Amino acid sequence: MSILVGKETRLVVQGMTGREGGFHAERMIEYGTNVVAGVTPGKGGTTHLDRPIFDTVEEAVREEGANTSVIYVPAAFAADAVMEAAAAGISLVICITEGIPALDMMKVHALLPAGVRVIGPNCPGVITPREKAKVGIMPGHIHAPGRVGVISRSGTLTYEVVWALTESGLGQTTAVGIGGDPLPGTRFVDALELFRNDEETEAVVMIGEIGGTDEEAAAELVAGGYPKPVVGFIAGRTAPPGKRMGHAGAIIAGGKGTAAEKIEALNKAGIPVADLPGEIPRLIRDRIGG
Amino acid sequence: MSILVGKETRLVVQGMTGREGGFHAERMIEYGTNVVAGVTPGKGGTTHLDRPIFDTVEEAVREEGANTSVIYVPAAFAADAVMEAAAAGISLVICITEGIPALDMMKVHALLPAGVRVIGPNCPGVITPREKAKVGIMPGHIHAPGRVGVISRSGTLTYEVVWALTESGLGQTTAVGIGGDPLPGTRFVDALELFRNDEETEAVVMIGEIGGTDEEAAAELVAGGYPKPVVGFIAGRTAPPGKRMGHAGAIIAGGKGTAAEKIEALNKAGIPVADLPGEIPRLIRDRIGG
Amino acid sequence: MKIHEYQAKALLKEFGAAVPRGRAVDSVEEAVEAWRELGRPRVAVKAQIHAGGRGKGGGIKLAETEEDVRSAADSILGMTLVTHQTGPEGRLVKKVLIEEAVAIEKEFYAAVTLDRARGCPILMASREGGMEIEEVAARNPEAILKVALHPLAGIRPFEARSLAFALGLHRFKKAEVLKEGIRTLTALARLFLEKDASLVEVNPLAVLEDGRVVAADGKVNFDDSALFRHPEIEALRDEAEEEPAEREARSAGLSYVKLDGTIGCMVNGAGLAMATMDIVKHFGAEPANFLDVGGSAKRKRVAKALEIILADPNVKGIFINIFGGIVRCDEVAHGIVAAKKELGIEVPVTIRLTGTNEEEGRRILEEAGFAVGKSLNEAAEKAVAVLK
Amino acid sequence: MKIHEYQAKALLKEFGAAVPRGRAVDSVEEAVEAWRELGRPRVAVKAQIHAGGRGKGGGIKLAETEEDVRSAADSILGMTLVTHQTGPEGRLVKKVLIEEAVAIEKEFYAAVTLDRARGCPILMASREGGMEIEEVAARNPEAILKVALHPLAGIRPFEARSLAFALGLHRFKKAEVLKEGIRTLTALARLFLEKDASLVEVNPLAVLEDGRVVAADGKVNFDDSALFRHPEIEALRDEAEEEPAEREARSAGLSYVKLDGTIGCMVNGAGLAMATMDIVKHFGAEPANFLDVGGSAKRKRVAKALEIILADPNVKGIFINIFGGIVRCDEVAHGIVAAKKELGIEVPVTIRLTGTNEEEGRRILEEAGFAVGKSLNEAAEKAVAVLK
């Protein structure tokens, strides 16, 4: 068993015939992901990477039984693509696209049917190494099947941590990139809930950063009782207030959302916070042995 | 026990200082309804009929524990009044106002928090004679505590049936006016569900009319298994197609929604349909005796 | 409220749908002028009345020359057009639309209406354009594609796109058909939501040989309850298209529908009014009208209601059925007495009165020489019997 | 994106909020002219820069006579205004707003912003106007009233009304204050939603002695991601208000923030870039900047990034940290080599490279004379050590 993606994943790639979508669809197929179809309006009836291309997600669901979608659609159209996937009966929508207007995502959340989960936007995706399922843009080769769940607002910083876990022999159960936008579809608390009952996951790493209060919410959830050790990292200790640090969500606004506040909240909840990414494997081993 | 309104009702009257609202608030108090407050923006701090008037429903809930609202607000502002009540934590909103734009009600339904029930609009309200609780505009004196639940799209036609039930000695448990609009907040199927487990209700009368397919949906529900006898009446056998018969919802559009179709659907579900309102008590007695 | 085709097309255009070039005119001279302005093409001369089936009734003609245009406009303007929707009395044609005739490659159907069961607007479309949708629905319901719209979100791009693909708009040689079709479907939905329409129907929605997608016909009805916030729509009302008695009733705050029978009915409440018509029929007569005097029937309004009923020459008897609730029986009685004095009612009147202030109402009416019943069945039977 | 007060007020007015009469000008002569046009009232002369705290810094002056206006405008235009938000380098004032001084009875605070935790826009207001909201939030959070808005429904009448009552706007002698306040709150919310703002703040929202409610100050920020659909907002951009290096980076597709340290950082990915800054600090130095070369860092972009870093005179060393994923290490290496050739890098450069095409990247760099590490910690330590 795994969370979010695995052997049961039947993936449709929205924007598969585009440059980004095509490149990553190929990498996903190479890795072993079950990519069943692509969607590009107007290219229905063709094939790409030996997969059928449809005009609509609805057709991909009907014809190929797609249950998961990954979105590589330009920002102006991406929110609509998420809603199309949700309306077509896709239950997990992973949105890679960066730069979607905040208002569009608010509307998406207000309209999302019950039972549909969105990951992202502006995220690297989700990977479950043991089941050879990679949905997103992360480099597959740095991952290894293992014991640790990873939840992160970042992309390359996640790779850094993932690689440290791989090198240390701990590996990953599933790594979830929840994305760097201010309104992620899945937050730390949601991802923690998913890992809660995942038998293979022995510990969870939370990679947070400045901005918002999602790390604090996660700390509260863990303080309320969480069955496995959680270890944290917070990027942006040296970030100045009022400046957006790349990610739309990484901003200390009105004096709130500093790294210091988050580290304090995590520590209070009994979550050790690493000073350097490289310390994370040791913090985990201290707790789960091996 | 009763459905919808009863001894537990703590009623706030939205539009209580208006002509209609004031008149009916007085009638409701006379009947025995527990009217705890009125709301008229700008008149907060005054009293009317010995009840405190507030500027907002939220204050009526906070200060007086209102749990039910009745709306006598002009059509242009009524949908907003429903949403205000729902947002303030009122769980039952009975909207008397006629002539609310259909689009406004669609938006209300799309925005209604879970657990909030709307009755109406364009309805006479709800009355539970046994508990002296009358919320709406129906004349109280024609009702009598009894054994029959009443659900109706009409106003005076309901009174006609209620009076026949009262004269016959059958009386009513609760009479629910669901209203004559095309998009009622509570439909026949919903009201039937409420009566399903109401111990005092031995039979239910459904008073339908031309337009829409809510009677057909109710027939389907009953055909699927309903624990008490249901008797029907359908107004508009002689109504021509394409013409709105007073109620916004009473129109045979595109050849659909005729009385004949509805009567057939009810009969198929084993629901006898009275030719004349006066036959209803007999049809009920045939089924529940007494 | 209904509006004319030319008005509907102007609205559709405002919301981004393409329509054939054209202009509505009142006279033959203007018709010729409009044809010249269009560049003297082949045109359709279309009678502007609030009813469908105009073609079969001779209300739509094609014309290519000035003479043709003149003669078509001359024959249609001023005619009384009878279609299956006008009733046998027909409608006087006061305006014609002079419109460029378009070269149609394929006809579709598209409409937005209210889905009562789902409680939302619904966008419907079909490849079987030019036919009445009820016919398609009866014969081949699968052919009608439906998209339920969210009342707050309006039409979302993927919804319009999916429908356009499902209709096969991407299969035309001209690639722009798909995009044009999406734009048109979006326009229909936006018009429906932004103007509080109750129906927006384009039939046929025509794909032209040159790749354009145009609303070759257009029908838009509005939610009467929402007209208060659309004065620009209210201004489109053509009172001449309404039944005069219904118009008069509406302005008096009464709800009245003329029917073909002989028993005039005056009732308080729409449901009871329908039931009363049904009872009249049950006892063997035909109702002359639906009339709801409303929930706060004052004497003046009651008198006005009787005046409207009496103006119908078919009326041979009147049945008044009042169940007093908010409406007080004495107030109604005063209205009936006033009407009798002012209008001199000459047909038999049967009255059934019960509810609030019933005794006082009965006394007033009996003093004025009316008999008053209490039981609905008995009164109805009597109302019908007096005709015989 | 930020805009000036005068631009914010024009937008607020467009959406139905009242603002004091006034005009923004570039010169002393125009300032006097604007004052004359206003009817020679008492006016405020307000420096237009993208930063708060202007009053304390001498950027806002009152004037009543032509001489006053002239001297106020003269002293403010062209000044370098330093406030707690500008940093010590201050901002050059190129425009002043000449605005009617209003007689304020009471000051409120009102704003719409994004509530990240709830995922919706939030309308906030407080009776403690004129103060910074953070201060109020810290001292008396109960004083801040909040209404969570539905992103599709926008602000509903009852929401604006409830907030206006909660603020006590119905308690003013002038009855119109309530209605005016409701209109203003509604305008703020509509502006936020219709223009994709990230902040709409009116502080103070002033109730005037004559019963008017006006936005005495106004601040509007926009969601950068949504500017593509608001060219009219993009047109309000004042590039002179932006840090030149940040502007240059933005147009090259780089995300760059200037800081005060000495170690220039070039990283791929925003999270890793922040973490890299933190590591530099951890080992005892200060980062000179945040710089994310992005997810598809091509050699040209890498070279540009180095150019921007090197233009900062504080930079004493460069730390390049690349975790190749989509980004290929060889491509980055080519960019570094190209930059070295073109720019002649004179400060020490420490490189950490790992991930996709790492070997090739390492080879290219080593051939060009760079040392390349693999471990982040070691590389960071070394980057900091070279300074000492």
What descriptors fit this protein?
heterotetramer, A: 290 residues, seven-stranded mixed sheet, six-stranded mixed sheet, 9 helices, C: 388 residues, D-amino Acid Aminotransferase, Chain A, domain 1, four-stranded antiparallel sheet
Architecture overview:
- The complex is a heterotetramer, with 2 copies of chain A (290 residues) and 2 copies of chain C (388 residues).
- Chain A has 290 residues and is of the alpha/beta class.
- Chain A has helices spanning 19-31, 57-64, 75-87, 102-111, 156-167, 188-196, 214-223, 259-268, 280-288; strands spanning 11-14, 35-39, 47-48, 51-54, 68-71, 92-95, 117-119, 125-128, 133-136, 145-152, 172-177, 203-209, 230-235.
- In chain A, strand 3 and strand 4 (51-54) form a beta hairpin.
- In chain A, helix 3 (75-87) runs parallel beside helix 4 (102-111) and helix 7 packs parallel to helix 8 (259-268).
- The two termini of chain A are 22 Å apart.
- The model of chain A has no long low-confidence stretch (mean pLDDT 96).
- Chain C is of the alpha+beta class and 388 residues long.
- Chain C has 3 domains: 1-20 and 103-241, D-amino Acid Aminotransferase, Chain A, domain 1 (2-Layer Sandwich); 21-101, Dna Ligase, domain 1 (2-Layer Sandwich); 243-387, Succinyl-CoA synthetase domains (Rossmann fold, 3-Layer(aba) Sandwich), CATH 3.40.50.
- Helix content of chain C is 36%, strand content 24%.
- The two termini of chain C are 39 Å apart.
- The interface between A and D is large, with 64 and 55 residues.
> What is the β-strand count of chain C?
18
> Which chains share the greatest interface?
A-D, 64 and 55 residues
User: What is the count of helical runs of chain C?
Assistant: 13
Beta-strand percentage of chain C? 15-25%
Q: Which geometry of chain A do the CA atoms define? A: globular
Tally of structural domains of chain C = 3
Our measurement of the CA-to-CA distance between the termini of chain A, rounded to an integer number of angstroms, reads 22 Å
